[in-house]
Amino acid sequence: MKNQLRVLRAQHGWSQADLADRLEVSRQSVNAIETGKYDPSLPLAFKLAKLFETAIEEIFQDEV
């Protein structure tokens, strides 16, 4: 699944560790999501959308 997480994080000036702290996950989890190695759970996707004040669909796109 493609995502805009790295772009959104950079726009806020946050490191992966900063974002991980805000989401209460590990930095490795943030890295795995950004690189497409891991798709977040639905609750985590909602948390990301709320944090970035955007729709989930604006962060994650299906690679069809």
TrEMBL record:
CDD domains: HTH_XRE (cd00093). Gene3D superfamilies: lambda repressor-like DNA-binding domains (1.10.260.40). One of its GO terms (molecular function) is DNA binding. InterPro entries: Cro/C1-type_HTH, Lambda_DNA-bd_dom_sf. It holds the Pfam family HTH_3. Keywords: DNA-binding. It comes from the Bacteria. It comes from Telmatobacter sp. DSM 110680. Coiled coil: none annotated. This is Helix-turn-helix transcriptional regulator. Residues 5-59 form the HTH cro/C1-type domain.
